[in-house]
Amino acid sequence: MSTTKLLTRFVTIATVFVLALSGVSPAYAAAPSNDNFGSATIIGALPFGDSVDISEATGETDEPQTCTSSLQSVWYSLTPAANAVMRANLDGTNFGDTAVSVYQDTGSGLSGLNFLSCTNFSNTLTFNVQSGVTYYIQAGKYFGGSGILSMNLQEVPPPANNDFASATGIASPLPFNDTIDTLAATVEADEPTPSCGSSSKTAWYSFRPTTSGSISANFNFTSFTPILAAYTGTSLTDLTEVGCRAFGGVLTFHANADTNYFIQVGGLFGDGGPLDFRLAIAPAPTAGICFGPSDPSVFDSMQFNDCSSDPGGADFQSFTWNFGDGFTLTTQSCCVNHQYAKDGDYNVQHTMTTVDGRNAATSQAVQVRTKDVAITTFSVPQTARVNQTKTINVNIQNKRYADYVQVTLYKGLPGGGEQQIGTLMIYVPAKAKQATIFKFSYTFTADDAKVGKVTFRAVADLVNGRDAFTSDNTSIATTLVSK
């Protein structure tokens, strides 16, 4: 018996002695028969199930603790007759702090174990096994204590549609849903590799539509990173890919009536597991228009962008634009430019077409308004003295649309920067014969006299909307100042 087990028995005997002195009769279970690695329970036929009381289980001196620090463990051994995928779990165990590890036997005793995988806290563990090779399963309680451990082991079969020849047939009408487990799936020798990735675990579906149209394939859920590809053809050696999608998403393609289509599903990076496959009539795309600037004028070369969306995940093939002023354009580019010659309200119509032939259309009202105000005259006194208050006039003309205009008056400061003198907002009629006068008053200071002048700057801004031509919205004038 190992040193650890002798120590455990000593502690148990001491406990019994103490309880006896106190008049309490102790009760405890015997150590499980597979407590030691050397007495591991041999797993024969599958599926396998076993329940064992591990209250008196112990850990051996050299026992591996790769993923746990469990001091209470039991052992199982398996020598499969064929290559397979195994799934182990502890369902039925009456404690939650479970610990399971799997090893391959590469030598003799505990030192000859090659760690493969592990899990804990009631999770499921899957692992690959090879024919004629012995594997050991170490199961126990993570934190120690009493409990009943239930070990369950079963072989995971490949899906029924693992091979191309046994592809699951999909009948019309759609949609179609199917849930499979690809954990034990394989790849055939002549199986094509999808253009968007590769998989070592695949399954197949076949579909022959009675009418032509676009269809979409996707996964409602997977437990791994998926990949799917669609082909036409009759055998593995003459398949032609019509579409591929990796990392999830939807694969949409045009399917012709009375044509065989084969869909290959799998997982990237050799992944496999449960998946829920879906094949359906492709959803309709939604057309959208984005444009800028949002308040265009005749001076703007507007940019129109396709802002369509496709729940089918297909690329867009072409875009048609009708700008509402007699100009139309069909292009493969998502973004176009257009400049309107005059103000007006325009109905822009837009149609997009996906690579599989679906299309959608929309329209957008675009209001072109060219607003433009200008400072026509900026009048400041030529000279002034300290403490004199004088009038400063800013004349504004509105060339297009009546609107409120705000004029702000600034004076320059020594060393740079400006000081705001005042702000006025006045309604300015459009195309008036006379300019609208914005009157400011300014009292000159001793600091102005030290500089010897004041440089004023007037800035005019539209209150509502954007000025289409801002180069005439600023004016500068200077007054000489003396004491």
Characterize this entry briefly.
The chain has helices spanning 3-21, 446-451; strands spanning 41-43, 48-53, 72-78, 84-89, 98-105, 113-120, 125-129, 135-141, 148-156, 168-170, 176-181, 202-207, 213-222, 226-232, 240-246, 251-255, 261-267, 274-281, 289-292, 302-306, 316-322, 328-331, 335-338, 344-354, 359-368, 373-379, 383-385, 389-398, 403-412, 418-428, 436-443, 453-462, 474-482.
What does this structure look like?
By secondary structure, this protein is mainly β. It has helices spanning 3-21, 446-451, and strands at 41-43, 48-53, 72-78, 84-89, 98-105, 113-120, 125-129, 135-141, 148-156, 168-170, 176-181, 202-207, 213-222, 226-232, 240-246, 251-255, 261-267, 274-281, 289-292, 302-306, 316-322, 328-331, 335-338, 344-354, 359-368, 373-379, 383-385, 389-398, 403-412, 418-428, 436-443, 453-462, 474-482. It has a five-stranded mixed β-sheet with strand order 1-3-8-5-6, with no helix packed on it. Strands 10-12-17-14-15 form a five-stranded mixed β-sheet, with no helix packed on it. A five-stranded mixed β-sheet has the order 27-33-32-29-30. The longest helix has 19 residues, at 3-21. The N and C termini lie far apart (113 Å).
